[in-house]
Structure formats: structure tokens, C-alpha cells
Design a protein that fits this description.
- This protein has 377 residues and is an alpha+beta fold.
- It has 3 domains: 134 residues, no CATH class; 130 residues, Four Helix Bundle (Hemerythrin (Met), subunit A), CATH 1.20.120; 68 residues, no CATH class.
- It has 11 helices and 12 strands.
- The strands form 4 sheets. Strands 3-4-5-1-6-7 form a 6-stranded antiparallel beta sheet. Strands 2-8 form a two-stranded parallel ribbon.
- The longest helix is centred in the middle third of the chain and has 27 residues.
- The chain starts with a helix and ends with a strand.
Amino acid sequence: MDQNIHTKKQFKVVMRGPSAVLFQQGQKLLIENFPSSIGPVNIVYTSRWLKRAKELRVPGNLWIEIRGNGSTLEDVLNAFTNAGLAVLPIMSLSTNAAIGYPELELGFDCTPGVTERDYFQSYIPPESSIVYLGRFINREATVALLDTLSAHPDAERLRRGANQYRLALDYWKFGQATLSLAHLWMSLEAITKAKIRAECNARGLQNEQELAKSLGVELTELDPTVRKDLILKGDDECYRKAREASEGFEHGFLGYEKIRELSKDVRHRMASYVRTAMFEICGLNDDILKILTGEPFNKPMGYWPIVKYVRGQLIGEGEELAAPSNAYPFMRWNPVVKLCKVSKEGKLNISFDETFTAELAKGISFKPHSYEAWRPD
């Protein structure tokens, strides 16, 4: 009897971390009865909105709350955390936006009617005041994708492909095309067998041998043929450059500059082909497919702060340019968010006040020419 009571304890685990996937204020995504290693859990995903002034809130971390039953707090921490992480690749694939690795912050017994409850907390630094790029999720389309993919017989392969796609978005920034393309190639490899089985079903064929014969290739050439002609839609240049870059990177037989150029040439096309293929393989209906392959979700988005530059001239005589306490001439930058609103179209609009304090040697001044803000890509 005591053991039965013990196993019916209720627990709550909370995680948070960086994410380009955003929820509007008051919005959340609830997933009920999601399987974990110790039983079903309910998971809530939402965004933290941080108060920066009386009427000003800006988006912060992705917030994940997992609730369910277990025997001890130690048992549930790992199981609930893994359950919370499992949905992130699908959210990232749906929105085509990066989600960083959230960390476990809280875990505690929330069983009603008890007087002693185990509690756990890990220190996670608060969000910084730096504003990052973000994109609002379409909850209905994301749930439809999750349900459709979960019911597919090749769900595990598709999840592996989605996770590699999520990792590719982690490197979606200028100068990091090589790493993003490497993960896109691994995503392509992960979904190849799922595409083969889907193609056999669509053509009424029994096995890979029959599909190879239908495509006019030897069985040993089936996988690369399916990748190039079916998943990458016959884009020979994309296939050739992506394979060369991936193999050159993995085996170290190409110089980094060559790999980077190859990756830069085809990264966007690879992302579009692989992402769309996963939607098609799992049988996503046409209405949801149209949403997820249209604006703004057709453009990959990493998780990086807006890139800002100031340009100008240092004016004055003398060889010493820096203030006495500095090694170099320096502009002390103070960006302040003055407005953060959601437009009628569902886009996040943020504006800043930027102030600069020149820290320069006596007799040296700064003449500004331009201020630039760029989306990293």
C-alpha cells in the first residue's frame, strides 16, 4: 500500500533555453499524454516575455514545463527532460527556425495534500538584454506535423532527420555554412530509407529491388539515386556540391576554403529540398504543407543577435588614439529597446535607441558616417 502511494506522486520539471521559435504573449502549446520512459506526461511550451520598462516586454527564452507521475524526483528529472527535448526537432522543422539546447532549471514534487516535497534547482543565468532574431510559431500546423509524423511507420527515421535539420539551423549564420551543410547531408542520409519505402508504396512496388529496376539503376546505386533524383528533385549541382563538401569535411581531403565555397553555394537549396521531403514523406496534408512551405517559414532562421556596425573617422593629430585606460580607440555602445510590438501580420517589430560614447585620447574625436543593422545569414 505504501509503495502504491509512493508511485502516484506528481512532479513538475521546468526547462528553458535560447530559441528563435517564439510564442506570442499568453500563447502556449500543450501536448498531452506524450510518452516518456516512465509513463505519459503533459508538456507545455511557451516563451518568456521579459519586462524591460513599464509598458515594454521583449521575448526571452523558450520555456518548457513537463508534468506527470513518478516515484521519486531523481527518477523523473531525466525522463521528463528527455520528453521535453523530444518535440523540439519537430517545432524547429515546422517553423524553420533554430532552437538551442534548453537546460533543466527546476524539478519538484507537486503532489496535492502532502506536507513534504522534494525540490531541485539548477542555476541558469538570466537572459541578456541583447535582442535576437525570432519567428512566431504556427501552433496548428506544428501540431498537425507532430501528429502526422508520429503516426508514420518511419517516424524514428524522420525524427532523426528532423534533429539533424535542427542542428543545421544552429549554424545558420554567415561563415558557418560548412557545419550547417554537414548536418543537412546527415539529415538527407537519415530520411533516405523512409523515402524509398514511401516511393515503393506510391508506385505499388514490393521492395527496393523493384524500385531500383523501376528507376533503371543497380540496387547498389539506389540510395544515391533516390537522394539526387527524388529528394533533391534531380538538382545535380546541389547533390554533387553537397556530397563533395560533406565528404571533404568528414574525411579531411579538401581545404576549408573549398568546402566553405561549396557549402555556401547550395546550403539554402539543400535545406529546402530536405525539409520539404520530410513533409511529403510523412504525408502532411496539402493545406498544412502550403503553410509550412510558404512565407515566412520557407526561409531558414538561425538564433543570432542582430549584427550592428558603426563606421566613421577618427579626427585629430597624434599617434595615440585610445583613452588612457584603454588599449584601443573604442566606442562604448548602449542599445536600448524602445518599442516591441506584434504587427497585424504576426511579425515582431522591435526598434532601438542607440547611443555611443567615444573613449579616445585627448585631441581625438569621432566623426560618424553610418550605422548599420543586418540580419545574420
